Amino acid sequence: MHLLLPFLFFIAAVFHPVPVSAQSPAPNPASGMEGLATFGVARMVETSVPDLKDGAILSASDNGAVLSDIPYDSQVLGIVSRDAGIIFNTTNSTGSAIPIISTGEVYALVSVKNGPIKKGDLLATSTNPGVAVKALVPGYVLGTAKEDTTVQNPDEIEKIAIDLNLHYFNSKSPFPGSLSDIMKIAMFPTKDGPSPLFKYIVAGLVVLGSFFLGFVSFSRTAAKGVEALGRNPAASKIIYLGIIFNVTIVIAIILAGLTVAFLILRI
User: Fold this and answer.
1) What phi and psi, each to the nearest 5 degrees, are found at residue 14?
2) Domain count along the chain
3) How is residue 90 annotated by DSSP?
4) Which 3 state secondary structure label does DSSP give 192?
């Protein structure tokens, strides 16, 4: 017991539950997932947007968290959830801070503007601020729906449970153009991702690596060729052919590196 009390005080000092300031819309009774968001873990983010609804999707901006209004937005921070089971606060949050969930199961505001949403469908941000729609093309998606929508009017907003898993999705086969897909994912300017200069950095590293490998291979080949020629002058023709063959391999390595770098820059 003497170890339990300090542990409870530590938990109370780190996690700060935020009271619900607005009543959340009622969950879909057909989903059987009522109260799901209460098991999520949220974090506080600063925002200047007033009257944010639970389930609204927020994205990063220079002015803090704002409602997502770009289709397939790669800057998504998470979904507003005031009733999260645990709210983790790592900053000195002001009165404008709001709890959001960035991964896991949570309720989100959705629209059927891109068609009815079925369980398992991928969801993405839309031009409707803070509202998700069914994903129809490759891009940055929010995750998958955990239940069907019940509304039919595209202008009506509904709240459904989703499995939030921010990632890039490509509906095409992963085999053709897999290098292109990997590079596109790496170059996405996400909130945690690299800048667009990533492809230039990778291309430069590939070129430097090919020249380094070529130089090392040529140095070894030249040294061994000179040594072999000194030991056996009579086999000079064979030794020369071996040196020419290895130099050809070195040139091929460098050309391959330059080709890969060129393809990277063309993506």
Assistant:
1) -90, -45
2) 2
3) -
4) coil
Question: For the range 179-185, what are the long-range contacts, defined as Cβ-Cβ under 8 Å and sequence gap of 24 or more?
Answer: 179/263, 180/267, 183/264, 183/267, 184/267
pLDDT tens digit sequence for 145-202: 999 999 999 999 999 999 999 988 876 544 444 555 555 555 555 554 445 566 678 7
Specify the pLDDT at position 83: 86
Give the pLDDT of residue 90: 66
162 belongs to a structural domain:
yes
Span 39-56, pLDDT tens digits: 678 888 889 899 899 999
Residues 151, 181: Cα–Cα separation, whole Å: 35
Q: What is the DSSP letter of 235?
A: G
The Cα–Cα gap between 37 and 101 comes to: 9
Do 42 and 162 lie in one domain? The reply is yes
Residue 147 and residue 28 in contact, taking contact as beta carbons nearer than 8 Å = yes
CA distance 68 to 142: 11
The answer on 216 and 165 residing in a single domain is no
Residue range(s) defining the domain that contains residue 222: 198-266
The pLDDT of residue 239: 66
Q: Is residue 187 part of a domain?
A: no
Same domain, 104 and 149: yes
Give the contacts of 200 (CB within 8 A, at least 6 positions apart).
Answer: 265
CB-side neighbour CA atoms (13 Å) of 150? 9
- Give me the residue label for tokens 């053709």: 176
One-letter amino acid for residue 169 of the chain: F
Spans of the chain below 50 pLDDT: 1-38, 173-177, 192-194
Asked whether residue 158 falls in the same domain as residue 203, the answer is no
